[in-house]
Amino acid sequence: MKVPALVLTLFFTSALACNHKIIARREGNASLPFTYTPGNDPPADPATISYFVNHVGINVANITRTSEWYSKVIGMRHVFAVDLEGGFSIMYMAHSQGGRNGTGFQSGAEMQRDKNNMAGMVEFQSYTGSGSGNSTGYETPFPRAILSHFGLIVPDIEAAQARFDSLGVRTIKRTGEMDFTRQTAESQVLGKAWGFADLSNEETQKDVAKAAPGLEAIGFRSFIVIADPDGNLLEVQQQSGAAI
Q: Where does the signal peptide begin and end (predicted)?
């Protein structure tokens, strides 16, 4: 029986985590089948004080099915959901933040209150409108572009934008902008990441137009979206004052 590569990777990573002290003692031993490099970074840039990864956004086919699975299987709790016009939905789920799951219960209202001060959340996005071409759900176990973005919280969105510019960071969406048209390469990247895979589809464009007022209302225009060197996206929100 073949063991899936992912299982082997997780097993090996877990083994490393459990045996890091042993590995450290054997550091430099030529008999090791890998190179071990312990972390030794200098202090972070002071400009990044209060930055933290808040959530990971992924695209899913069915919000209800997803909510039931993540609740039943891994104990995540529904923080909130927003159903926009045009068949676009957003849902946040998280574990209670008072401690490891089950040791510090929080009500839904408390989790909503603390949303931009929490880490480890998952944002689920689902587009099932006329232009999705996928009314029955994904047909493959690993849908294309399932990872939408990482959510980063910063204390000052304008200062963060200026800093990203100074560092030459590729910005997909600047704060104050919101473009899901098909006119630029950046808007196409943004559209695909948010589940609108085919912006050339006229039905998709109609649904985007329907969803736009809702996206405005939840504060999306104020967000920044940047890309890392491999094209993975980070949605940047301000720590306080953001609706979601």
A: 1-17
